[in-house]
């Protein structure tokens, strides 16, 4: 009897584990949904003028100051670290003055947005509408103030924006600002979803660090204020969301799990 050649049993097809479907998109606001920082910069300077201060932030300085997330934190950083010479004034008095300046700034920014100073970035409206129609859940995770979100989205989308973005976490609910992941962790908790079920959209290094710190695969669309930042941890870096479809997001999301 001739020995049958030993042949290895057919290798079991390595069944790729099923990928987790994409269930939600989580958007940063400033610089991602819209190029807002030029308006924020003008609003900060308007507030300083109203307060009779000789402070004026130009674009190069503001680009550096944007490394500090949060308008109040940014003013405090400028006053104590950049301008310096702050007399040993009471910490409470400093905080009160910063709050007053930020209130003036927020009111100025709201007026500017209502006058059409800010538009959604290319491709954003089409993507959020098609994602909403496709049954994906949409959320916002931002360090900006709630007033700014309402002003921007009401002007850009209309009153129905509240039906599109189910969940919003912002400076009023997440006091620990990006790059801390708090705002994204709280958003995931309210969505009752895992990070793997979602994609985050950001524009800055702080934002990318916050989103990836919460475990979120993140798509970055840099802008003039953040183009020099490093985005090595991003799932994709795109010039904008122009031409970006839900199907493309689902394919990138699935490929990221391989
Ligand atoms: C960007 C910020 C905000 C804005 C100014 O937020 O860091 O501080 O620059 O808005 P995002 P406030 O996470 O949306 O990129 O003055 O309300 O902070
Ligand atoms: Mg941003």
Explain what this protein looks like in three dimensions.
The protein is of the alpha/beta class and 258 residues long. It has two domains: 24-35 and 119-256, Rossmann fold, CATH 3.40.50; 38-114, Putative phosphatase, domain 2 (DNA polymerase, domain 1). Helix content is 44%, strand content 9%. It has ten helices and six strands; from the N terminus they run βαααααβααβαβαββα. It has helices spanning 37-50, 59-65, 71-83, 91-114, 124-133, 146-157, 161-164, 182-191, 205-213, 246-255, and strands at 24-27, 137-141, 165-169, 198-202, 218-220, 236-237. The chain has a six-stranded parallel beta sheet with strand order 3-2-1-4-5-6, with helices on both faces. Helix 9 links the parallel strand 4 (198-202) and strand 5. Helix 3 (71-83) packs across helix 4. It is globular, with a radius of gyration of 22 Å. It starts with 23 loop residues before the first strand and ends with a helix. The model has no long low-confidence stretch (mean pLDDT 93). Bound molecules: xylulose-1,5-bisphosphate and magnesium ion (MG). Magnesium ion (MG) binds at residues 28, 30-32, 203-204, 207.
* CATH homologous superfamily caption of the largest domain: HAD superfamily/HAD-like
Lateral arrangement of strands in the main beta sheet? 3-2-1-4-5-6
Structural class by sheet pairing and helices: alpha/beta
In the CATH hierarchy, what is the class of the largest domain? Alpha Beta
**CA-to-CA gap between the ends?**
47 Å
Radius of gyration: 22 Å
User: According to CATH, what is the topology of the largest domain?
Assistant: Rossmann fold
Order of helices and strands: EHHHHHEHHEHEHEEH
- Beta-strand segment tally: 6
